[in-house]
Automatic annotation (TrEMBL):
Catalyzed chemical reaction(s): L-methionyl-[protein] + [thioredoxin]-disulfide + H2O = L-methionyl-(S)-S-oxide-[protein] + [thioredoxin]-dithiol; [thioredoxin]-disulfide + L-methionine + H2O = L-methionine (S)-S-oxide + [thioredoxin]-dithiol
Organism expressing this protein natively: Streptomyces gobitricini
NCBIfam families assigned: msrA
Family, per entry: Belongs to the MsrA Met sulfoxide reductase family.
InterPro entries membership: Met_Sox_Rdtase_MsrA_dom, Met_Sox_Rdtase_MsrA_sf, MsrA_MetSO_reductase
Bilayer-spanning residue ranges: none
E.C. number(s) listed in UniProt: 1.8.4.11
Name of the protein in question: Peptide methionine sulfoxide reductase MsrA
Amino acid sequence: MLFGRTPVLPTPDQALRGRPEPGFAVPSRHTVLGNPLVGPYPEGLEVADFALGCFWGAERKFWQTEGVWTTLAGYQGGYTRNPSYEEVCSGMTGHTEVVRVVFDPSVVSYGALLKLFWESHDPTQGFRQGNDVGTQYRSAIYTHSPAQAAAAESSRDAYQRVLNGSGYGTITTEILPAGDRPFYPAEAHHQQYLDKNPGGYCGIGGTGVSCPIGVARADG
């Protein structure tokens, strides 16, 4: 499906079946922020899910943001239950590499996280991000409320306008509800990878085009 050909998402019937339970344990705490990785999370915090290429560099972008309580690398948007990294990279699960961001909306808004998301990658590349090619590198936002969905769509439309003026093509980011697209945490060595391996690979790179400030509010 991937080697020597354009990546193609599998259908539900083609996707690997997976397993009823995770095949590995997830660390209890974030190595940088010190807070639990897996919920339930404290009252008042909100959850956002972003896919912007390899999750190693993407996760670091978010944990460095003031108001972010914890981050978690994982897989989302596919069909295979409890997939492994190798299965996701095969292109046969339908998932993309995602960062789950748990944040305090009194400190950092969802709109500010959207701005960081858009500016940290090129959302016009389809099934790739830079030299990383595959359906697992596609751009995506999985929303947790109607307010998040409205903010994500508004910010996409505003960013598209400025990208058009800079010679970029159409944004390919999928914006879909997270509710029926389970988030599966990635293996322990993928969590906070660039904290454990400061010189490790980071494929994250934006377009250099700023996302207009104030276009991505998520009030209510």
